[in-house]
Specification:
Elements: E1 4-7, H1 11-23, E2 27-33, H2 40-44, E3 47-52, H3 62-71, E4 76-78, H4 88-96, E5 100-101, H5 106-113, H6 115-124, H7 140-150, E6 154-158, E7 167-170, H8 173-191, E8 196-200, E9 206-214, E10 220-232, E11 235-241, H9 248-263, E12 269-277, E13 283-289, H10 296-303, H11 307-316, E14 332-339, E15 341-342, E16 348-349, E17 352-353, E18 356-358, E19 365-369, E20 376-377, E21 384-392, H12 395-408, E22 410-412, H13 418-425, H14 428-431, H15 439-442, H16 454-469
Parallel strand pairs: 1-2, 1-4, 2-3, 4-5
Antiparallel strand pairs: 6-7, 6-8, 9-10, 9-12, 10-11, 11-14, 12-13, 14-21, 15-16, 17-20, 18-22, 19-21
Helix pairs in contact: 4-5, 7-8, 12-13
Length: 472
């Protein structure tokens, strides 16, 4: 087994990888920026090194990371998610320098990282895809022509990147110009190039994704699905396993398609094949994420399979060790992403010092996070601060356990999504499983909640007004 692994990431995913390494008796190396000097993942690692004052100089500098890894005798690098995790050049650099990249090959990352290339490969493999342009759309004139042929509504999508960036919807010809130009502008800013293409837009779809594991012998299996339909601005807030709308037959069918998609690009290690599903349960390939997902814990909880451990073992060359028929799904799991954001202010990120912190516990409750009391949340990185994962034997039990856990969770000093998520747990459509990717937009009433101290302030103000009126 590997002797030493460098974690080329930060925050909760760095802690998650370090935890798996410790169980495998592997020494760990953390890298950190000046803003993360006091972070828990830095303290948990066996070794830690400052790599720059900020993300560009540190977490996003592949040459500095690989040079450090070679200097200190690292066997492998785990990229986590985000940052360099889906950067084919980084994976290639690791390969060239004799360091194992814990993930797929650089070629698989390249093939699936460009959505136009991935789309073409899926069509060639017979995987269902949405109607769309044959390649990149290089001008507004071409976009208008293609959209007219396809029929509205349509999506303008970035060929590279993800997370909803560079994605715009045009419901008609009047909206296309703005959608096309704004998508290209955001794509250029986020990914360094402005290439976009068009796909047919499905109104109110479900977002269903399948977890894939593949070893170096070509053996590929799936570990069931996750429903990631609860989103805001194409960013996931809540993830659920298994989906409430898939039966065993459809699960097996979609799982087989996901496996075929992975095999089409000779995929190895852990990955996720994502689909959009319409109201008639027709499903279409959306993209493949060539890394561990933020939402991987819900799959771990319902299958009992440690995905990060499997990533490391596969990268070392070990066989998968399980067959498709060995995979069993038990009960339900749900993950809430607790972000340092203000839902009432368009989910604007918040930064500052955590003045109070108390996490929930009890049966079926898991916390993946790295913040603590007096920890300072930086404005320079992603707003995700904690992942709260709960399990239950039934859907109703899972929802009630998440509601109770959110009510117990205390984070003060910065605004978080906790009260907003708590409202979702109490909302009737969510409890009944009646949701899709439009759920957040259709439920403005979820923003009606009191923050810590807010209700007390209102009561105090009313009391003062009454006292003044009556001369108390």
């Amino acid at each position: 087994m590997f002797k030493k692994i460098l974690v080329a990431n930060r925050g909760e995913i760095a802690s998650r990888v370090i935890r798996a390494c410790k169980e495998l008796n592997i020494r760990t190396v953390a890298i950190f920026s000046e803003q993360d000097a006091t972070a828990l993942f830095v303290k948990k690692a066996d070794e830690s090194y400052l790599v720059g004052p900020g993300a560009l100089e540190g977490y996003l500098n592949p040459y500095r990371i690989v040079d450090l890894a070679k200097k200190i005798g690292v066997d492998a690098i785990h990229p986590g998610y985000g940052f360099l995790s889906e950067n084919a050049k980084f994976a290639k650099l690791c390969e060239r320098r004799g360091i194992t990249f814990i993930g797929p090959s650089s070629k698989a990352i390249s093939d699936m990282g460009n959505k136009i290339t991935a789309r073409a490969k899926m069509i060639e493999a017979g995987i269902p895809v949405l109607p769309g342009s044959d390649g990149p759309v290089d001008s507004l004139k071409d976009a208008k022509k293609t959209a007219k042929e396809m029929g509205y509504p349509i999506m303008v999508k970035a060929s590279g990147g993800g997370g909803g960036r560079g994605l715009r919807v045009a419901l008609n010809a009047g909206e296309l110009e703005n959608a096309y130009e704004s998508a290209r502008t955001e794509t250029k800013a986020a990914f360094g190039e402005s290439e976009v293409f068009l796909e047919k837009y499905i109104e109110r779809p479900r977002h269903i994704e399948f977890q894939i594991l593949a070893d170096n012998s070509g053996k590929t299996i799936h570990l069931g699905e996750r429903d990631c339909s609860i989103q805001r601005r194409h960013q996931k807030l809540i993830e659920i396993a298994p989906s409430l709308i898939l039966d065993d037959k459809l699960r097996a069918e979609m799982g087989a398609v996901a496996v075929a998609a992975a095999k089409a690009v000779d995929y190895t290690n852990a990955g996720t094949v994502e689909f959009l599903m319409d109201k008639d349960k027709n499903y279409y390939f959306l993209e493949m994420n060539t890394r561990i997902q933020v939402e991987h814990p819900v799959t771990e909880e319902v299958t009992g399979i440690d995905l990060v451990r499997k990533q490391i073992e596969i990268a070392y060359g070990m066989p998968l060790g399980i067959d498709q028929e060995d995979v069993r799904i038990f009960g339900f799991a749900m993950q809430c992403r607790i972000n340092a954001e203000d839902p009432k202010n368009s989910f604007a990120p918040c930064s500052g010092k955590v003045t109070s912190y108390y996490s929930p516990g009890g049966i079926g409750v898991r916390i993946d996070g790295t913040i603590y009391r007096d920890f300072t949340i930086s404005p320079y990185y992603d707003s995700l601060i904690v992942k709260l994962i709960v399990t239950g034997s039934t859907w109703n039990e899972t929802v009630s356990r998440m509601r109770r856990s959110l009510d117990e969770f205390v984070i003060r000093g910065v605004k978080t999504t906790i009260p907003y998520l708590s409202n979702i747990m109490n909302e009737s459509d969510f409890k009944d499983g009646n949701f899709d990717t439009s759920y957040i937009d259709r439920k403005p009433e979820l923003l009606q909640y009191y923050e810590f101290g807010e209700q007390a302030d209102i009561i105090a103000a009313i009391s003062a007004a009454i006292a003044a009126d009556y001369g108390f």
